[in-house]
Amino acid sequence: MSLQARVEDAPEERGGFFIGAADSDGVSAEEEEDHHQQNHQLLLHKANALASQNRLTEAISWFSAARRHGPVRPEQLSTFLVCILRNFKTKAAGPDALSGRARGISADDAFECPNCRGFLGEAVTVACGHTYCKRCLQRRLFSTCRLCPEAVGGEEKTNVLLCGLLDKWFPEELNTCRSLYKVDELCRRKRFQEAVSLATDAIRSDSETTVAVRLSRAEAYMALKQYSLALEDAEFCAKSSCSAEALFRKAMVLHEMGRVDESLHVFLHCLAVDEDFPCAKRQVEKILCDLLSPDENVMVGLRETTQNTSPLLRSKTLVASSQAQPQSPVQRQHQARAVSSPHHLDNEEKRWESQERPGLSRAHSLRMHSSSCGEEGLKRVFSAPQLGDQEKGCLLKRKLSVSDIEPYIIDCGSTKHKKGLTKGFKKQAAKAKTSRGVPEHLLDPNDMECSLCMRLFYEPVTTPCGHTFCKNCLERCLDHTPQCPLCKESLKEYLASRKYMVTTVLDTLIKQYLSQEYAERTKAHLEETRELSDLTKNVPIFVCTMAYPTVPCPLHVFEPRYRLMIRRCMDTGTQQFGMCINDPQKGFADYGCMLVIRSIHFLPDGRSVVDTVGGKRFRVLSRGMKDGYSTADIEHLEDNRVEDNDELEKLQELHDEVYGQARVWFQNLKIRFHNQILQHFGPMPEREADIQATPNGPACCWWLLAVLPIDPRYQLSVLSMTSLRERLVKIQHILTYLQSIPNN
């Protein structure tokens, strides 16, 4: 029987459970346990399927049934949470209404952290090239970059250059940020009373940092069990900035106070502002897990609330109960109970997680007042898809948009803050933003010089250790050793990832404030690139082996000079270089063949396997050297065309004769040699109808020249020929000699 047929009815309790209610006689304990686990998994799959279809009322029943057969972990409710959040955002007039995703960086906000929109402070550049304040990264407030889809993680090391510039340009703001970091450090060390004192002094001395400092002070207040003061600070921050961090902090305080329904709504508001907030996601999943506990009173109340109660009535009942109903003894007990301080953890994210644990069991708290706001709040959040059009219309009248939800989410709890505070904060933020600019007398182009090339940064990249270099300069250093040129820290992982992303903030500052110097630097770079892209002047020469037109030539590139050469060929767009064999007197031979790069496979240590194929032949006119590798001025070679019809007919006959002779020789080779040739050079090219179609003649001649066991000097002499007849005669002589040798 299919799963759909087996789980069609509601999973109510019966004499035996509705799935697999088999006679237990003759069944071992192990088999019974396996059967129990299978039922549990089936129930979870069904519940998630219903949740993904937005049938949340039914999903609740199935999750409840699953909990009767085994534990339901919070992370297993992720699909359920996604649907709830989608409905919440739909009520909030669409995702864009609450979305707090950061905008692209411009010159006006180059000094702002893309996450908290505060001053960068101790700036940290992540792998994707975007820069955040160290506080946001330490608190693990997001897992993907705000400006691109790259994951954010790893050790937080400050950008040495950028921190030096900020200290020079904005010393007062940087000192204020350092005071904030001291508050956070005191909290990490559990010295909460000192943190409160320092934060209070900072608020009095600089009102522009009120939000960030108050968030840290709220955290300290909560650890000291002073929940009313913590809520006051959290509500101020939520009103002033409506940032995800402020909403999360407020939700945590409400949850610690036992106001679970309110905290759930604020957690959802936090996720509506920022879906990528891991701490808030885990907390909502835990709350939902407790709400879906197997307590029958809770589940019956939840179902009846969703199915039988008018949404408008639910709204009125909820607001009235939240505003007028006195706290239950359990809530008062929860608010008065002491919350043990979190254990010391090296990982900042674990420290946040430790603060997510309430002083009273959530499940117990919810069951004690299940008939009041807990179930109402949950159903009010996600019951909209189950309603008729008329009921939806009533519910949408009080949709949970930013403007409509704030009187409930932010003002509830007897807040003392007024709307004027929000306006005042916005004015202060606008003033700070418009007045923050680099002082002209402090601008110095020398501050933006690469320590390797001693020129203005061009495509600046920042290493994981925090040092900044031009992209090309750093790549050249890594060709020799996988270490930072300044601090000698290992960059093996950085080299293996090959993500040399431009540091956006520095690039923006250079273009904005050093536009003239940047234009000159760009002009010099373009001139260098133009010189490298000429295919007849200063052509890079790889001195290694023989290469032939149309014949593949795979290369293992490991020397630093050739790694640089290959990279330049790719950067300039030519994707070509010359290949010559060694010459003891001249350095390399007078004739060679151009190789066209088809693909490159980079190895973790910087080496690469380059797949190339032969192109045009050339003759060397003059030799040179650039950055360790050879260069040459060259002229390309082409076969002399045969115009006389009789001569062309004789040439075609010679070609057909040589081609037939070559095919016989190749087919008579031992199987081992035959397979090796196929593996390295591919099959023998097909006979060409027009033997003068290309400047290099038939491809079969070059394939034969590559596979025939002859001296490279002899091969070089054939490569340099511009007469197809002479080349065919030479190859015919070689084949005749090889076929005369007995096959041993």
From TrEMBL:
GO-annotated molecular function: ubiquitin protein ligase activity; zinc ion binding
Basic and acidic residues composition bias: residue spans: 343-356
Residue ranges with Low complexity bias: 319-333
Entry keyword annotation includes Transmembrane: no
Domain RING-type: 113-148, 450-488
Residue ranges of domain Lon N-terminal in the record: 529-739
Descriptive protein name: LON peptidase N-terminal domain and RING finger protein 1
Keyword line: Metal-binding, Zinc, Zinc-finger
PROSITE patterns noted in UniProt: LON_N, ZF_RING_1, ZF_RING_2
Coiled coil: none
Record SMART domains: LON (SM00464), RING (SM00184), TPR (SM00028)
Region (Disordered): 318-366
A Gene Ontology term for the protein's cellular component: cytoplasm
A Pfam match: LON_substr_bdg
